[in-house]
Design brief:
This protein is 81% helix and 0% strand. It is mainly alpha-helical. The protein has one domain: Up-down Bundle (Na+/H+ antiporter like fold). It is globular and about 55 Å long. The chain starts with a helix and ends with a helix. Keywords: Cell membrane, Membrane, Transmembrane, Transmembrane helix, Transport.
Length: 320
Amino acid sequence: MLSMVTVVLPVFAIILAGFGARKVGVLGPHASLDLNRYVSYLALPALLFDVMAGADWGNLDLMEFVAIFALSSTVIYGVTVVLCLFARNNLSDASVDGLGAAYSNTGYMGIPLCLLVLGTDSLPAVTLAAVATTVVLFAIAIVLVEAGRQTQPRGVAIVLTVGGSLIRNPLIIAPLLGGIWAAAGLPMPMALDSFLDLLGASAAPCALVSLGLFFADSSKESTGRIWSKAALLSTGKLLVHPALTWVLAMFFGLPPFLAGIAVLLSALPTGTGPFMLAELYGRETVTTSSAVMLSTLVSLVTITFLLYWGGYAELEIATR
């Protein structure tokens, strides 16, 4: 157990460093936005492109992995939306809440955590999971939010909104271009490889610091009712989501290494994507940010237990 805590703790320590730097004024009010843009538009796309360009696409198990991970996330999202609608939430708010229970922090926490626990062999699968999370869940959520805001159906406008948001997202475009590069069999020039390595190496620490800055700026307005709702969303995210993924992985016979990645990614806390969508559309930003914060704090315990009881040390050894 102590060894697993040692693996997980540095990830949360970097988040705490960003939180503390903002609270004591070392970093200003715009630091979170600027660092987040750096990660989203430079560092993380470079890492994703590099991973995808060097991936072995002859492994069909990756496609099954993506299907299982996307299916479990979509089911959790759909069930949460339905339950919120029964609780008399409107469709737009229910859509954002659904993301709070299903949107794993695959980019900011999944990549650094899987690198630490399972090594570089896990990165192609993690990258595909991050793309699936962004493409599938964001597309569905945007459609439902837009539908909830319209008094009259505007199918073309909704399609254009979804398509435009996906086309402009570098976290989708970069791995897509990397996959095309790999499919074309193009060699990687040494200078480009070094550039991608240097830029991509900064993605994980900067992303985690940015997450800490985000928490420091969004921890002031939460009430008891909001924390209760955030606790329900966090329970779905940290317990129900990985349990469903495990059942699907066992049912479809996913190889142990990929099954372990899928369950670990499903057990991650809520990512910042739901907050960004809530802020964009003026929905429940305080509830969403509280769910992100609470699920991240509680995941220090839940992920540690998952790594200990899930046999991840044996999975890492098997890949050497």
